[in-house]
């Protein structure tokens, strides 16, 4: 008896993965690939689109030959901010330019001067000024720097929708990609920003297809229901939105720590924008306010510094337990949250600490986490305030860090703080988005494992 499954391609910057989920959302097969990057015409590194396309076909052929599985549907979750320029047959006309590619200052000034200034555009599109990371700016650049290429483009597809198109032969846009710091979308109008129409770019954007809808595949046959593809940050939130109806924040931790609040639909303010807040659109086209911190990167750098200074190994700190006597050295006499509120956002900077002033590495590491929780409190507060959120779910690397989780519980005393774990959240989100089309069972209630943390110290 074959197992009914959904095939999800999860395409990150580094690893490209294929997962098969059964109807209980258990992973029954996985495959990982890594490709050598190629270079664009300027010598900048970029994704090898042809390797990616062939890898999808090879992987699908492999699982189709496997008699264990019955593929019911296919979907994609990929990194965002990347556009594939295709002709009327869906074939790429140019490299997949890297979103880290430097953006010309002159062109940036021309754009913002023409459309009301950086602050106005950023507020209406919920997009901080990020150069090439605003994918709309990539298409704008093509228009002015490569007019011949621009003329040949049928559609500019975000990467998830390009991946879906190679299976379906149909070209679409998706709201999770359009709504993520692209400069394309006017959150108030719920339509493309007027600059998109004025520049003639709306014609280069394929029709929007619902994130929870499916199309018929053309490859490898017409038997497979296929989703339109989703932006990975939005996909990771879907299992939580489907599992929990009470208001919550998801703190997704990795290199970036992103606080996502699907229950905050207040327009972005200038202060929030200045503090690196933005809005995403969910697959149901609802705004999700988010704030970002580069904490995972900071943690990685500072742990190396601590290990070098004290002659230890970086791996030691993965299992360091909270020491209440050590952490109490850094706690104020009153409530921790009230203390943090009195401090400027820049009050703590561990990189400036002289490590010789700490008694040992454990003391230094505790203080590092204390400073990161301070920054996290300030960042999460930006999307938490004035909402009725009562739970914070933390997933990713910091959810396994006992010191971080205990301090977070201490600084949010009126909010339940949970470590949440789920196998492959972005892939599962892409599967759950089209659940009703392929799965005969109800959504399982145990997709996400939760562990409650409480303050270790009365404060």
From TrEMBL:
Q: Name one GO molecular function term.
A: kinase activity
What residue intervals traverse the membrane? none
Q: Is Cell inner membrane found in the keyword set?
A: no
Q: Which InterPro entries match?
A: ATPase_NBD, FGGY_C_2, FGGY_N
Which Pfam families did the record assign?
A: FGGY_C_2, FGGY_N
Q: Which Gene3D superfamilies match?
A: 3.30.420.40
Q: Where is the Carbohydrate kinase FGGY N-terminal domain?
A: 6-196
Q: Which residues form the Carbohydrate kinase FGGY C-terminal domain?
A: 246-436
Q: Would the keyword Iron-sulfur be found if you checked this record's keyword annotation?
A: no
Q: Which UniProt keywords apply?
A: Kinase, Transferase
Cited CDD domains? ASKHA_NBD_FGGY_NaCK-like
Q: What PANTHER family does the record tag this protein with?
A: SUGAR KINASE, XYLULOSE KINASE
Question: Which protein family is named in the record?
Answer: Belongs to the FGGY kinase family.
Q: What is this protein called?
A: Carbohydrate kinase
Originating species: Pedobacter segetis
